[in-house]
Amino acid sequence: MIKSNPQSRPTSRINAFQDLRVYQEACTLDKAIFDETKKWPREEKFALIDQIRRSSRAIGANLAEAWAKRCYPAHFVSKLTDSDGELQETEHGLDRAHAYGYLQESEFSALILRCKAIGRQIGKMIQSPSLFC
Question: Could you count the other beta carbons within 10 Å of the beta carbon of residue 54?
Fold first, then answer.
């Protein structure tokens, strides 16, 4: 995990994408969604369940790719925006699941709060790629 001072670089060295707090939180979100989707109706297995599992997994995958391309700030930001796009797709899936009654309000709210926190972190990385590149 990194600790950062808002006016300087992170205080702990990040040696791998797994060290990024945002990556760790994306993996936690992915697992929470995986667990929740096990409870959804079987008829959604090849539709909403498949889609939301893939998009939630892609958030972390794109963060890992971004880390690999950090030598090239434009590529780094491009992969971060891909990660943010997958996050938005995941939020859409959560909205639909809530609307269909697959997610109770408390579960929905908790997952959306995680999405918003991850989105803020990705946004900060997009705005300040030089802290990572």
Answer: 14
Angle 73-99/21-37 helices, nearest 10 degrees?
30
Interval 28-78: pLDDT, tens? 999 999 999 999 999 999 999 999 999 999 999 999 999 999 999 999 999
What distances in angstroms separate CA 125 from CA 43, 68, 69, 77, 87, one per listed residue? 38, 14, 13, 8, 15
SS3 (DSSP) at 111 = helix
Task: Report the alpha-carbon distance of residue 98 to residue 96 in Å, rounded.
Answer: 5
Closest CA to 43 of 109, 100, 105: 100
In contact, 112 and 96? CB cutoff 8 Å: no
d(CA 11, CA 34): 33
Q: Can you tell me the distance from the alpha carbon of 99 to that of 48, in angstroms, rounded to the nearest whole number?
A: 12
C-alpha span between 108 and 31 (Å, rounded):
15
pTM over 0.85: yes
